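dude i think i finally got it to work??
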Amino acid sequence: MRRLWLILALAQMCFASPQDLKTYGEVERYFLDKGSTNAFYEAMDVMKSRHPFDFSPEYKKAVAAHFAEITNINATIKPSLLYRTQALFAKTFGPKKLFAMEASALKKKLDGKTSWKETYAPKWLKVIKDVESLPLPDGRHCDILRQKKANGKALLFCHGGGMILPPMLQHWDLALYFLRKGERDIWFPDYPLLTNTDMYRSTTTCYLTYREMLKKYKPEDIAFIGDSAGCALCLTVCFRARDNGLPLPSRLFLFSPAHIDVSEENCKEEMAILAPDDILIPLQLIDNLNVFLRPGPEAAHNECDPYHGEIEGFPPMDIFTGSKEVFSSHAIRFYELAKRKGIDATLKIGKAVMHDWILMPLGKESLEVREMIAEKLKNDKIKNK
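look at this
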């Protein structure tokens, strides 16, 4: 029986066009079998062409208006002294030098970080709060921060770091903030990093976490938050849930969404304009992530490029981007795409602030958006469609 299945699978690969194949792995194998030296990129192009978006003049005009707003903010607004002090610290000790390394050198450095292969909530957090480590079926785990008085509401937190770095202290500080101020249990999945796996398996850990959440909470009482690369995980979990017949959460908070596809007209040029002001993200990181980021053989087209996937019917989205981050050029495009696909989406442009500024523990710039999200977490009554 297995031999028959293999024969049928090979026949499918021989006679089907790449558009007929369902997963990324099947499409990539199609090009490999034809002797392609660019199978990865050709497979990505095919997967993303499944549902092309019509970039209308109105869409382009709206994007141009947002970018003009960003450049005007950067030319006229000066952030607070407290923000600038923290930004100087981030510039001096942050990951920009690491991200700017050549891809092979970066991979070698990251491969040596064996302690990053599995991370747990900090010990100090377990002392002051009720924290449970829940094993997941894929061999990973999720840390759950519980409220003292349960109210049946929860937040799935997908941390950023390019999917190549583990959660930082600032991520746990933010989780603790939303535990207290947002009045939600926090579910914090320890997904495998792309230095050791592919995005499909990173998504799987987050998806399994959400599946466990649905056993304990109503979907309308669950929200997702992601920062930077974690935003893509929030979207891919929604795709996976919908494909498996599960209800979607009530709301998505996407903070500084980071994306490496710069194929759209003008996007790369805009990122180059913003790059000198970005104290965290060098343009080299985009080339590096193209080396690390592999969809995984089982990935469907939506998970290959979640920002251009079929998001129709997704829950409301709150999108945040700083005016001084290279990825703001991408964030404003995703916001406009979401609106044109019928999503109840909002866009907040942080004035003269850097990528992921919500992680700063001090200053009005960070506090403003933290309070905004916490208020929605407490009072959100939106039901699933």
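The beta strands are 130-135, 141-146, 154-158, 185-189, 222-227, 251-255, 317-322, 345-350.
im so relieved honestly
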